[in-house]
């Protein structure tokens, strides 16, 4: 921070040469860098500083004097934003924002798929809702559409429950109870969810998610356990999740399949519960229903995703919520089992770790750019993934060249003629100018050719 | 190439000021950049140039004069190697080589696992064999141990057969016949290999690999089909594969399980064969056995892997063998289903696309560094993967920080105290110096902290 | 009854010519016909008659005068017993009794198998216990060994629960909820118990038994429902079953697998319960645990079995408990699915409908002889059937020629020589005396050749 | 035979008092007893006798003199027929024939179901064909409709192949290779046909039938093996089966599923073939296709069924083809697994051992009456059983009270009033006339109440 030229920055923002920086001017500058005016770090730094000074006259624009400005930029993210030194540069962030806006516009007319039917709250969801939010490792946020419409997090809670279990029990213990392989079946198929020993195949299927939660604060009572989960979400998102009690009640009352799986696991002693408590499996199922009923919106969920993209560190608080190792494990399993029964198809088309929930959310993490994208749109495809959500992921990857495997050497290579191939194979001899036969690629040609590829 | 200063380079290599560049000196320089003396491109350029001049006296060191040197550096890879402009820089290549050498030394005493038993040629393999080879997108090669010991390619043929099918039929047609999801079962379990319609779950299991080969040159006769497969391997590796006929015979004679799967697929019309030819399923199985019996070594197989790392372009010839899209698809399926029944575990521990074969080979692709690593060591673990092979992948990823998800933000984050958290949550107020409560990370801190992380 | 010569019978029993029939003499006569002194019909008839007369002097043998005797033989079963006109004749009953006694003696040293381990009451069962009881359609009883030792009925409750559901709902409704085919799996395998729609395969597996009980008195409250089941058992057995509350508690507390299955069925709407009651599946499981905990002994359970052998009519009361159609359906499913995973093996070896429970009981019905045999011996084989229980069935069938398919034409047939066969085929001609070639069986030769075959 | 009064019989048939018995008169007498004029035993005895005498004048009715008659009745079946001493008495046979004729008439308009589609010969079968044949243990035959229309035996060969394997290898060896339990799946489902060790579940599913045939004459060459099978059929039926070569070719060319199963079994070493012969599994499949293509008609197949009903003794030759033990085992497995996926349903509705084939045949054995009934009608239900075939079985069982479990005690039993029940339970006391409370059944009331019940 020592090198940050506070005075120079003050002057460059004091465009009126009034020896003050207008608050609106500062906020606009931050907004262009991706920091929202209601970013908790911005709010705190600016508000507290202004509150500490003399009160402003009503109706007058607020401003910061030199000392106040110096106090404000002690907030590191503000200093870095003003220097263009955040996870994504202002120019890139602008480009990304425009791209997402275009994708949003293009997909508004996409109306295929059907809203989940199995409980009233999901069935009643407005199918037209559509929002996208991006959050970077530094808490830069872009939103479009219904990005602050609340929804129950559903299965997108699974990666985070898995992270909590890993943090508390360590990976070897967790994987004594839950496998790490894709199930080859649908997320709730009792015949394929569990292996012959009753062990759930992985933490992203319902059985595995319940087995995971059975490892989260197992010694605490249920209200405390739920509180801990809520706190973890708060720490990731910078603000608390809500709770969709109506969804909870409906899932609890209809969740026979999940209760069934919990009991079957307990029957094989593959659920970490008190064997003497015959209600323990269904209590575990209820804990699971409660966690699925946590209420977020695209913007907040993107912050949770950004925590994973940031190696376990919350974008807003800088707090380490999970170890980098844990975040990596979570992204790995999202990579191969996050999109229900279309996980392999998604890995092919998109190639990035993602998780979807039946409320219509899809949370995708872009590790190289350290950001997460969340889409909310309730219409689901047959696999249970939001139609628009999958489409947003696909478009983003295509438009910005983000597929980790599909732009390798795209600029290279020649079609070799048969003659050339013979020559290469040593059949022809020098003097024929054969070394000039084919055009080798330009050296160092790592620059992608795709127009919109993100230069991060 | 215009900017390449031939004269300057000539002078810098003419260390004896003799107006010649010693051939050995040039080759040593290239070797340090990763190009072997028997690299076909090097051999061709140097040999042909020297052959075109006056013959050398026996026993005298060979040299290149100014014109000859200029002719040699017309070979682009030589020019780029001398400029340090290959996929991996000379310094990094040296670091990588040393690292692999160390891993090789560390794992020589690893003797757990057992050689595959089901056919004599595999059963008779020398369990002590151990070789590692690396090949980059530019054909830079590092070898240690038994890197040129021949082995049958076995299941590591599957990704390439899939690539051929994709190139010839297009992805929609291929995936009409073969799924894209992990099977949730072992690679040859008839109960889980095929879905209820008889469709194999993915191209990495035996059933899927046979269904894939049924789409490769389907209209040609079998000898021609096999020739085409051989040619594709030749194009990737810069030299032809061998053929382990003894293995072929043994697999053919004992391969009832595969013949069974082929017939079951045909019974459900999920194998692209002439329905009137009752021997078609077993012919397809034989085609599969033949492709599994192609003989390579770690070095050559690494070149095939480098073709994928290079987006489908052969490292030695610059020829485009597959489209970048195809190479990407292949890497995707390797990412989630390449390591038999431990694919999810491998995705967690290593995070990179890989494929193993029961002869004891493991081929891993490192897309970011555009290289492939192949290990050959016949002792297998319970999932059928080479024990040392998996260990080499794990060590490489750990030692060089190559896991795509596990070093994100590793340097960031603070443990937030409860007080701090309360403050952040807006409970405390300004004047408490709260902005200094936690140490934000240094801006732009993308530098990994791991000592050996590869700076590519 | 008109033809029954009361006077003649009185005289033949009045061996002392004392114009009385000694009570002990009458009881002995009945005992030889198979009626126990404590048979409720005998007790009632004799006791009431004697009670109605003048009191006997203490220490004096009791007797019946002419009128009293006439009153006693108004009880039809007594009249028929004295005439030798019960389901099994006195001679045959004696032969059968001796045969069973021999089998009992022969099998006392059989100690293979292991007592069920999953709950304490079963685990603690005395493995040496061994009792056999036979009960005919007329309530003739033969007992040997621990025939009155109490045990929980366990899975042998299933056929009777199925009968109750059939009576109350009719077969079409019952089979809308429960299948009729053998499961091909073990009795509690969640992967094979239910078909793809969640429908249990048959009423003899746990899932099917719960689905069956969900159809028994579905509108009543749980205590009433259980009372009705108890009453049905009382009606069959002539006395009430007990209740093993300790077993109930243990099964309830450990019965996660069954609770799991109940929930899975409910999840697919394949359990006849109120969909709004989220505890309904586990209440159904508890109902099932309670019915399994009904306590009987070999003798009483044989009476329940005899009710089936008697086409649904209780042997002691003559009351029709189930229709003949219902009894037939129950015997059918016992025939192919009553002996857990060895049902097919048992059908081969024994060929008669039977059901076993993990407490070590096996109840077999011999329809042609209208009797049931129950064995109690806690050591189980791997399929969960009592080792001695299966052996008793096998021996009985062998010793008395009861297998319905294995003594057909056993006395017939010749080995035809090749010459004979040629002749028969019309190759040879008359005059060769060919009609004498083989000894045709004696006409009407239905008489089995096996020594002990029961002539009933 | 000694007691047979030849002279009396001769006189009773010599109704014209001509001291001869007209041949037509004798044949008519035999026909009424169920023996056809073309019964091989009748033909042989009568023809040979007449041939041995003086030739008849053309156009004159043929007759037997006293000696000739004596010679003819040396054929035991003729003697017994004339005495009314065959498996089914003349009166009963007439009743049965009339009953079947009525069933045939009633079901002619039944046109539901669909002809098997998978190969041309089956697809082209005339769906209107409908024939019923009955054959008793003594070769009494009744036919109606298309009882001599040829069809390929298909799966109805399975019980007989099983019988041959049992005879040649013994049950323990057979069941080392093939299970005895119902599969719980469809007859050709690769996922449920084989257990985890590759062992087929029973001999009635395709996989089990192939495994069975692999045990029939395993050391002979294939032509000899097939000849032995043909001979066995000839021995049962009294005449040779045909061969539907067109069906064989079609099944061989399309039988990928069966070839697949054969290979999968071989892969697990669960097929008794030379492990060094890679074509052995498909040769086994071909052997199976050949046996399925044996051509019979309802009448001949009924004779094969009667061989089972007769404990393994051929009805026409009296030759023992299988041991009674083997015949019993075969009937047992038919009892629980003979009707494909509806075996349990059939056991409930009909309760007798039966086997069906996709050509539209159903062969049912009635052990108590020692006869077999075969229906031929090509339209199949969803389980693959002939619609009319199943219906014929059901009707026969209903009309003649043949269900082994459903008419037990049908005539017995009373509805007990609550008061009565209380009394019985000992609550009320003597003097109330309680012994008259309920009407006990008439003693010995074994007589069924159903009008048409067969009195055999």
UniProtKB/TrEMBL annotation, chains A, B, C, D:
Coiled coil: none
Stored InterPro entries: Beta-lactam/transpept-like, Glutaminase, Glutaminase_EF-hand
Segments forming domain Glutaminase EF-hand: 9-87
One protein family per Pfam: EF-hand_14
Residue intervals passing through the bilayer: none
Binding site for substrate: 155, 206, 251, 258, 288, 340, 358
Annotated keywords: Acetylation, ANK repeat, Hydrolase, Repeat
UniProt GO MF annotations: glutaminase activity
Region (Disordered): 425-456
SUPFAM superfamilies membership: beta-lactamase/transpeptidase-like (SSF56601)
One BP term from GO: L-glutamine catabolic process
EC number annotated for this UniProt entry: 3.5.1.2
Recorded family membership: Belongs to the glutaminase family.
Quaternary data: Homotetramer.
Protein name: Glutaminase
Organism (species): Kribbella amoyensis
């Amino acid at each position: 921070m020592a090198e940050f030229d506070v005075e120079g920055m003050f002057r460059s923002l004091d465009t009126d040469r009034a020896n003050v920086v207008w608050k609106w001017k500062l906020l606009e500058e931050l907004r262009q860098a991706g920091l929202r005016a209601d970013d908790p770090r911005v709010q705190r730094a600016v508000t507290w500083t202004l509150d500490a000074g003399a009160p402003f006259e009503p109706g007058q624009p607020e401003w910061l004097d030199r000392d106040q400005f110096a106090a404000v930029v002690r907030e590191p993210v503000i200093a870095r934003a003003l220097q263009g030194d955040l996870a994504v540069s202002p120019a890139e962030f602008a480009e990304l924002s425009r791209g997402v806006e275009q994708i949003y516009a293009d997909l508004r007319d996409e109306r295929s798929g059907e809203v989940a039917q199995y409980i009233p709250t999901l069935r009643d969801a407005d199918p037209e809702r559509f929002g996208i939010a991006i959050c970077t490792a530094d808490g830069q946020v872009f939103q479009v559409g219904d990005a602050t419409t609340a929804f129950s997090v559903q299965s997108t809670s699974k990666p985070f429950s898995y992270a909590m279990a890993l943090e508390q029990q360590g990976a070897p213990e967790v994987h004594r109870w839950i496998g790490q392989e894709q199930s080859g079946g649908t997320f709730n198929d009792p015949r394929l969810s569990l292996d012959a020993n009753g062990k759930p195949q992985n933490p992203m299927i319902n059985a595995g998610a319940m087995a995971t939660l059975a490892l989260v604060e197992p010694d605490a009572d249920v209200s405390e356990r739920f509180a801990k989960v809520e706190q973890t979400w708060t720490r990731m998102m910078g603000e608390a999740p809500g709770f969709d009690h109506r969804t909870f009640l409906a899932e609890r009352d209809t969740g026979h399949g999940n209760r069934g799986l919990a009991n079957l696991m307990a029957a094989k002693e593959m659920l970490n519960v008190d064997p003497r408590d015959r209600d323990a499996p269904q209590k575990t199922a209820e804990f699971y229903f409660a966690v699925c009923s946590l209420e977020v919106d695209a913007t907040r969920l993107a912050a949770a995703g950004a925590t994973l993209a940031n190696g376990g560190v919350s974008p807003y608080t800088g707090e380490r919520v999970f170890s980098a190792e844990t975040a990596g494990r979570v992204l790995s399993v999202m990579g191969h089992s996050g999109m229900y029964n279309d996980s392999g198809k998604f890995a092919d088309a998109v190639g990035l770790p993602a998780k979807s929930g039946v409320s219509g959310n899809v949370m995708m993490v872009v590790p190289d750019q350290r950001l997460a994208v969340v889409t909310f749109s309730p219409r689901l495809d047959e696999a249970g993934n939001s139609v628009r959500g999958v489409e947003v992921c696909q478009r983003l990857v295509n438009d910005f060249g983000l597929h980790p495997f599909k732009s390798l050497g795209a600029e290279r290579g020649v079609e070799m003629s048969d003659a050339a191939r013979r020559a290469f194979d040593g059949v022809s001899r020098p003097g024929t100018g054969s070394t000039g036969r084919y055009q080798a690629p330009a050296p160092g040609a790592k620059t992608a050719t795709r127009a919109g590829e993100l230069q991060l």
